[in-house]
Amino acid sequence: MIEETHWHPVALGEDVLEQPLAATLLERQLVLWRDATGTVHAWADQCPHRGARLSMGRVIADRLECAYHGWQFAPGGQCAHVPALPTFVPPESHCARTYNACEKYGMVWVQIAPAIGTVSDAGSGVPAFAAEDGTHLRKLNCGPYDVATSAPRIVENFLDMAHFGFVHEGSLGTRSATAIDDYRVEVTAHGLMATRCRAWQPHSSLNATTATQVEYTYEVTAPFSAVLTKVSEKMPDREPQTVSNHASGYRESIALFICPMGSEASRVWFRLAVADIGSPDTELRDFQHAIFMQDKPVLESQNPKLLPLDLRAELHTPADKASSAYRRHLQQLGITFGVC
Q: In angstroms, rounded to a whole number, what is the distance separating the alpha carbons of residues 199 and 178?
């Protein structure tokens, strides 16, 4: 599957501590663990000896030890010790199945299989998040959220503004202003970008005190990742002194990162890059949580849970041009996971 060549988030880095952690990606069971240098590793959660889950074991002396027979595996995956045969030197064939892993944006990313003819270099293919380099912006992660639907359905919802006045009435939208102005969609090197996306929002952010017109830019950065950047017509009541380029307005970004655990099961994180330096992390996360908890039941109600790539399978209007472009993009990539 082409999906195996892409990098996907599987856990927060802070959750991979001293002992192994189980994770799921593309219907594969993984074990995540750190060696003595703090480097994170992602392996198949299956001991090559008798198939026990390595995530049930422990990390000892810079090795991952299986809980069943105590076989120990070095960071490269090679078996280094078999307790039942203390003098036995395991051959190269005695090794765990390993995957590429790296850390970025405070998360652990895994690539099941590099694309043919390429060499992985510590996650160079992880989806871009331009706001990460904004030194005046505060970054934090929200999630995870487990959602009983496909990853593409969640991305499409993220790109959709027409639901704001109904699903997020009183915050991101209002029923009295549901019209969607025309906007532009263009193909990019990594996906697509939608610009000039405007919405009237009663409560667009945690610190917003009045309704305002907000302009969004959406970008699909990988098959199951997307970023929105928004600019409000009004500056916040309490603007951080470190924010530069006031003429550009109040900018912040939200990245959507999805782990496709199964074709109809996803784990979701949001990474915020905001200019709010005063509010506690809990308040920022609570606001994002409240928004997504409004989306979640609707997402899980959609039928089919797989995203139809045939544009004739569901109805479309010009207000849906970003989601229609996203479906065409997945089809052109040859994505088969989470779609129908």
A: 8
More confident residue, 326 or 135: 326
Q: What DSSP string describes 67-79?
A: TTT--EE-TTSBE
Look at residues 43, 36, 50, 37 and name the one whose alpha carbon lies nearest to residue 22.
43
Q: Give the pLDDT of residue 238.
A: 37
Q: How far apart are CA 172 and CA 200, in angstroms?
A: 8
> Distance of CA 224 to CAs 42, 43, 296, 300, Å?
20, 22, 16, 17
- The CA-to-CA distance between both ends of the chain, in Å, stands at 14
d(CA 202, CA 176): 11
Helix (H, G, I), strand (E, B) or coil at 88: coil
DSSP state, residue 308: P
How much is the pLDDT for 84? 98
Backbone angles phi, psi at 210, to 5 degrees: -135, 160
Inter-residue contact 257 to 268 (CB < 8 Å): yes
For residue 293, count CB atoms less than 10 angstroms from its CB and return exposed for 0-12, middle for 13-18, buried for 19 or more.
exposed
173-209 pLDDT, tens digit per residue, is: 899 999 999 999 999 998 999 999 998 888 878 877 7
Chain centroid, CA 326 distance in Å: 16
Mean pLDDT of 300-326: 97
Query: What CA–CA distances, in Å, run from 97 to 46, 54, 113, 193?
Result: 8, 11, 12, 37
Sign of the C-alpha dihedral, residues 177, 182, 187, 188? negative
Give pLDDT tens digits for 153-163.
Answer: 999 999 999 99
